[in-house]
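Changelog-adjacent note: as of this version, every example in the card shows the full chain rather than a window. The one below runs 170 residues end to end.
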Amino acid sequence: MLAVTGMTCMDCAHHVEQALRRVTGIRGVRVEYPNGVARIDSELPLTIDALNAALPKNYRIESLSAEDAHDKPTTSMLGKALGAFDGSRRSRAGAETPLITTSELTCPNCGHIAREIMPTDACLYFYDCRGCGAQLRPKAGDCCVFCSYGSVPCPPVQANQSCRGTQSSM
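Full-length structure tokens:
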């Protein structure tokens, strides 16, 4: 697993993924924007310099220490990916980090993963798992099912705002 810097949205992750796929010897690439990581499967050893040479200049690949790689959440893990925001919503150069509106809900009962678009103007209190049919509800202290079972917390939490008291269901 490698760190990817310079990404600000899901389209950025797509651009990085496409550029890396063109590198000779790479069999597969998966770039996760919320976590800022890339997983690369290659036929032969590749240098960081070779990977960076393939990327547009605003993106960079860096090695992760074993400890950092262990601490990085992935979209297949159960629970919240709060690490994707380093626990804060700090501005960079005066620009606010864009909200992530796609999250992967993982059912705690059967492990089924569903990619869902999060509402930006409401919290999702109830969600019916497509794998086992269980109705998911937020855990105590969480505002919605995305904060309890999603790979990314809901947009109001990302923006350090309280939920607006409205609810939605899928």
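Structural remarks: Strands lie at 2-5, 26-32, 37-42, 60-63, 102-106, 113-117, 123-128, 135-136, 167-169.
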